[in-house]
Amino acid sequence: MESFQLRQQQLSRAIRNPDIDSPEGIEARRLKIYQDLFFNNFYDFLSQAFPVCRRVLGDSQWRSLVRQFMRDHPCRSPYFLSIAETFLEFLDQSQAHLSVPDFFNELAHYEWVELALDVSDAEFETEKPELHEKAIFDANLILSPLAYSLAYRFPVQQIGADFQPEMPPAEATFLVVYRNRDEQVKFMAINQFTALLLREFEVREFEPAQERTAGQLLEDFCDRHGQSWSAISSFALDLLHQLYRNDILLLDRQR
């Protein structure tokens, strides 16, 4: 069994890295079939998962990066969709040795979030009650499991073949990326205040549930951050309705 496992390891290394010698007894022509099959599967999947990353690097550099990932980084999950998340681990752990732009890791993470939302099996309840005007302040709201509040140094939502900043701007980029009831993955640019506020609506698994309405939560939030509730109540009302309308905040049925 040890000899068989050693043989498997030699074969897998040769499949991941065609630059090493073929294992003894395996014809190079036959080995190349597997090398091409594995690489093309990885290449196609990662190109679909990270299309902007691919365009930013160009095909030649992108192929080299995919090859380096296959060669150097272990993929331990048996699930094909886990490859994209493992690719992020590879980028983070290998950043100092990769010839990629400074914004590349953040861009890859942003694209992975879009993929994760697209394939998530989380679902909305069929009913969405109307919350008119200030009635939304009396509702118990939670952040949708299909919404990510994100902060980046670079404006990742703007990066593409024609816009590749060399330095991060003075102000960070705050986004909420979400999937709505129409199965569309979208993003919304937000400010730091909204990003901090969205954290208040997250469901914290190991904390006791607090029955706070959206209005109570906002008042507590303002007190902690030195804001006047009366000064922002109109803005907060519009913001809550926008987040609820876009399925970023949901009605909490558990309370």
TrEMBL record:
<dbReference type="InterPro" id="IPR018640">
    <property type="entry name" value="DUF2063"/>
</dbReference>
<keyword id="KW-0238">DNA-binding</keyword>
<dbReference type="InterPro" id="IPR054098">
    <property type="entry name" value="NGO1945-like_C"/>
</dbReference>
<protein>
    <submittedName>
        <fullName>DNA-binding domain-containing protein</fullName>
    </submittedName>
</protein>
<feature type="domain" description="NGO1945-like C-terminal">
    <location>
        <begin position="144"/>
        <end position="243"/>
    </location>
</feature>
<dbReference type="Pfam" id="PF09836">
    <property type="entry name" value="DUF2063"/>
</dbReference>
<dbReference type="Pfam" id="PF22106">
    <property type="entry name" value="NGO1945_C"/>
</dbReference>
<dbReference type="InterPro" id="IPR044922">
    <property type="entry name" value="DUF2063_N_sf"/>
</dbReference>
<feature type="domain" description="Putative DNA-binding">
    <location>
        <begin position="8"/>
        <end position="91"/>
    </location>
</feature>
<dbReference type="GO" id="GO:0003677">
    <property type="term" value="F:DNA binding"/>
</dbReference>
